[in-house]
Write a structure and sequence with these properties.
The complex is a heterodimer.
Chain A (H helix, E strand, L loop, with lengths): L4 H18 L1 H5 L12 E6 L15 E4 L25 E6 H12 L12 E12 L9 H15 L18 E11 L1 E9 L6 H21 L2 E9 L3 E4 L1 H6 L8 H15 L5 E9 L6 H18 L3 E6 L7 H10 L5 E6 L5 H9 L4
Chain B lengths: L15 H16 L7 E6 L1 H9 L10 H15 L8 E3 L4 E6 L4 H20 L10 H19 L1 H12 L20 H9 L10 H7 L2 H19 L9 H8 L4 H22 L1 H20 L5 H12 L8 H17 L4 H6 L3 H5 L8 H11 L2 H8 L2 H6 L2 E7 L4 E6 L2 H12 L6 E9 L4 E7 L7 H15 L3 E7 L2 E7 L4 E5 L10
Parallel strand pairs in B: 1-3, 7-8
Antiparallel strand pairs in B: 2-3, 4-5, 6-7, 8-9, 9-10
Helix pairs in contact in B: 1-4, 2-3, 4-12, 5-6, 5-11, 6-11, 10-11, 12-14, 14-17, 18-20
Classes of the chains: A alpha/beta, B alpha+beta.
Chain lengths: 363, 513
């Protein structure tokens, strides 16, 4: 039975989406959504969707029941109101990551990513679409078998409508069979690199974490298979898990080239360039140790990383100590290279624009 | 009655054992003197009952997102096991009630008994006298009209308009239909009044004139006359509570908008008595289901389940107020007191605690009194008349309030008077602030002035701002609200785009209508 309510429900969901769209900038700059990320959905608290009315404010008070002296906190917080006014509910609206990505895409006017042509691998998939005369019993198609037996019994006159017993024999049996399809699948790997030298504080890391969440969401929307790898570096680089990536607090100097070398190594070992869409993202405060290391970086980028990647992205967060020199260096060397995206993220509010800068090229 | 359920696409009759149970319980209920409309029970799945509940008990409503929101909330509530709707019944003739298809047999009997209590209340309580008992048809009719407007003017536009109407829905006249507010004065009448100077002199000789018609008195008369005249020329002459009704008559609305607003107003008016009698009505139905279940219906095997279920409904959660429980206990209290003759002058004047405790005149008037009370009272008069000090003490009722210093809700008082006052306040005007239209031609600029009758509690400014924006959009001119905030007179202004709070102006709030 189709319920009338479905229309109202869809209407409501549309309003929710509109609201998310409107407040996207706020959501993108806050931890609110990340903390509420489920497997496939994000639940968003929406206190604002209501029909406004004249109503009493906080000093209304009410009547409750239970233990306690005067002046004690009332247990269970707020009592239920006796009138017919609904209390103030904070509604949790669930929205799928897929829908969220779409909203981001539309709102930031991100182009859909065009996977690189020669980087398609195919996957083989079995689909049960046919019927065969032979096969394992576990694949027996009961209804077809029954029909076959019924047909045979009627034809041979052994079917008695008053006693409708159908006994299939070997020739009646039918089995499901499969065909193998090959499908092109585009797979992508995101390699996050982060500077964890002493100058990168919690504030900076939080920005990186938020930015990474949105990058993940968007790229996952575009590719069926997305793998993520994480590299942290100060003067030396190492690969870590997602958790460690966002939690470590290291200190020390900064040799960006160490990270780029490791990144290069990972790509060489695990991700053949013609099968994978590769997205290295590097976040730093842009304070490299020496000009000579920066030269090494540019070299690695030019020779290896940039040619191997769909796009190399660099996001620079502001820190109190950083000079931000690396941003300028990159700009100078790759400023007009299509394959390199560079962005500065001075604070949380800038995340949305930064995402647009990094992902806006549709590569 | 069997063929009445035409409005469902799929009509599911009750299974035979429930049909039998219905006839049996109906007989028991009538035996106790309950007097109800024919009642039709429908079997529903969870999804259906949630849908119907989000539609306020009706299978068809006009399209609106808030029903979807309500539905989502109920589905969630069920998934998380927070609440579960056991019964639903609507005030129509015949009455329709819904049974959840996977409830136990005991649950179904309980729901039936409970439902007959409600239907008896709908039929006999005075406050329901003017409700449309054919509301099923009416609601479907409303839905069809709104759909037609949506086809013609677009979903967004109609929806936006409905949102605005709904935000004023609670500004209604609770006595609408029960009393006549005032007679509209004709233009000539006002003019005639304006032509006279309003001074009546008594005949007197010249030398006595100063004494028989003292000049101060004549002046007083003239002043009063002008005051009256000014009042007459004001519009509206008397403050108006029915805001939607006023906008329909005097607002600058398109025809379809008038119609939609009329629909919202009519539906709000239909549901209003249920808000006014929640405590009584739930208590009454609970009283009757407990009475019938324990005395007549339950089998031995069902007692435990019943007790479990019943205690679940009437449990007072710490810190909260359960209308089922309070209502039920008050009804029982009335029965006990009138059975034992604990009323009247002698009882009230008796100071002897021991004598009062054992007071029993064998009057046996309990049930009779209950039926009388259910005819005439609403929640406010019910609590006002029958809430006793003993009840408040025994049930541990308290008032709570928001403590600004700690940012917490704290227990404010356990005093009987305070609790009763707070309860009455919460129930008055169904928990809504009283806001009236006091001037529809404010400053002679066609602006709308409303006055909040302040009763010690401020209105929420954030919501007021949004509500006033809606009102300003509907009225087409700026609107003003005279109120008090933090014990200071304040006027809120909204001209449709900008909201202003002006302190120290206006009077705000005294008055007793």
């Amino acid at each position: 039975m189709i319920l009338n309510i479905d229309n109202d429900l869809n209407r409501f969901k549309k309003i929710v989406k509109g609201r998310v769209r409107k407040d996207l900038r706020r959501y993108m700059g806050s931890d609110e959504l990340i903390g509420r990320q489920g497997d496939k959905v994000v639940s968003i608290p929406l206190p604002e969707i209501h029909i406004p009315r004249f109503r009493y404010g906080k000093n209304q008070g009410g009547v409750g029941q239970g233990e306690g002296e005067e002046g004690d906190p009332a247990q269970g917080g707020q009592g239920q109101q006796a009138g017919d006014q609904p209390g103030e509910h904070v509604l949790e609206a669930e929205i799928s990551l897929e829908e969220l990505a779409e909203i981001i895409g539309e709102e930031l006017e991100l182009p859909r990513i065009e996977p690189r042509g020669n980087k398609r691998i195919s996957s083989r998939k079995d689909r049960y679409t046919g019927i065969a005369l032979h096969g394992p019993e576990s694949l027996r198609h009961t209804r077809r078998t029954f029909r076959q037996a019924l047909r045979r019994q009627i034809a041979s006159g052994t079917y008695d409508p008053k006693r409708p017993v159908i006994i299939p024999i070997k020739e009646d049996k039918r089995y499901r069979t499969w065909k193998t399809h090959t499908e092109p699948v585009s797979a992508a790997v995101i390699i996050y690199m982060m500077d964890v030298s002493g100058s990168m504080g919690q504030k900076q890391k939080d920005i990186v974490r938020l930015e990474a969440f949105w990058i993940d969401t968007w790229l996952r929307h575009n590719y069926k298979n997305v793998e993520t790898r994480f590299i942290i570096h100060d003067a030396a680089a190492r690969e870590v898990s997602r958790d460690v990536f966002f939690r470590t607090r290291e200190s020390g100097g900064t040799l960006i080239s160490s990270a780029y070398k490791l990144c290069m190594q990972i790509i060489e070992d695990d991700y053949p360039v013609d099968e994978w869409n590769i997205y290295p993202f590097h976040f730093s405060d842009g304070d490299n140790w020496s000009a000579s290391d920066t030269r090494t970086c540019m070299e690695i980028l030019r020779e290896h990383l940039v040619p191997a990647s769909n796009q190399f992205s660099y996001g620079q967060v502001d820190s109190e100590y950083g000079s931000g020199q690396f941003y300028k260096d990159l700009k100078q060397h790759f400023g007009d290279d299509e394959r390199v995206a560079i962005s500065r993220i001075p604070n949380r509010d800038a995340i949305m624009d930064s995402i647009k800068e990094l992902l806006g090229k549709g590569r | 009655m069997a063929e009445q359920g035409w409005f469902f696409r799929v009509r599911r009759g009750l299974p035979p054992e429930l049909r039998e149970a219905q006839a049996w319980i109906e007989g028991i209920a009538r035996g106790y003197g309950l007097d109800f409309f024919d009642t039709i029970f429908e079997m529903c799945t969870y999804d259906e009952i949630n849908m119907i509940a989000s539609y306020g008990g009706f299978p068809t409503r006009y399209p609106h997102w808030r029903f979807g929101m309500e539905y989502l909330r109920m589905q969630k509530g069920y998934e998380y096991g927070l609440h579960k709707i056991y019964e639903m019944v609507i005030n129509t003739d015949p009455a329709y009630a819904y049974l959840l298809d996977n409830n136990t047999f005991m649950d179904q009997k309980l729901v039936m008994a409970h439902v007959f209590g409600h239907v008896d209340f709908f039929k006999n309580n005075l406050w329901f006298a003017n409700t449309n008992r054919k509301m099923l048809d009416q609601m479907a009719n409303h839905a069809a009209r709104v759909r037609r407007y949506i086809d013609r003017h677009g979903e967004d536009e109609v929806e936006r308009f409905i949102d605005m109407c709904l935000s004023l829905e609670n500004l209604a006249d609770p006595y609408e239909g029960h009393i006549r507010r005032h007679r509209a004065r004709s233009e000539e009448e006002v003019e005639r009044h304006a032509r006279s100077d309003g001074v009546h002199k008594l005949p007197a000789r010249n030398y006595m004139d100063r004494y028989i018609n003292p000049p101060e008195y004549l002046e007083e008369q003239r002043r009063r006359h002008l005051e009256n005249l000014e009042k007459m020329r004001r519009f509206p002459e008397e403050p108006v509570r029915d805001v939607l009704g006023f906008l329909i008559r005097h607002g600058r609305l398109a025809r379809w908008q008038q119609d939609v607003m009329g629909i919202i107003r009519a539906e709000a008016a239909y549901f209003a008595p249920q808000g006014m009698t929640k405590v009584m009505n739930e208590g009454w139905a609970s009283y009757w289901h407990t009475t019938m279940m324990t005395r007549d219906i339950l089998t031995d095997a069902e007692v435990i389940d019943y007790a479990d279920h019943h205690s679940g409904t009437v449990a007072m959660r710490p810190g909260s107020f359960n209308p089922y429980k309070v209502g039920l206990e008050l009804w029982r209290d009335i029965e006990r007191r009138w059975d034992r003759g604990q009323f009247g002058k002698e009882w009230l004047e008796c100071e002897d605690v021991a004598r009062k405790r054992d007071w029993d005149t064998g009057a046996g008037l309990g049930r009779q009194k209950m039926f009388e009370v259910r005819r005439t009272h609403n929640d406010v008069t019910f609590i006002d008349t029958f809430l006793t000090e003993d009840f408040v003490r025994e049930n541990g009722l308290f008032t709570w309030e928001y403590d600004k210093r700690s940012g917490q809700y704290i227990i404010a008082s356990r005093d009987f008077k305070a609790v009763k006052e707070k309860l009455l306040f919460m129930l008055s005007n169904r928990g809504n602030p009283r806001i009236l239209i006091t001037d529809a031609n404010h400053a002679n600029r066609g602006e709308l002035e409303l006055t909040h009758v302040h009763e010690g509690v401020d209105i929420q400014l954030e919501w007021a701002r949004e509500t006033m924006r809606n009102l300003a959009t509907l009225w087409g001119r700026p609107v003003h609200l005279v109120t008090r905030v933090d014990d200071e007179p304040v006027v809120l202004h909204h001209d449709g785009s900008e909201f202003k709070v002006e302190k120290g102006a206006g009077g705000g709030g005294e008055g007793d209508r």
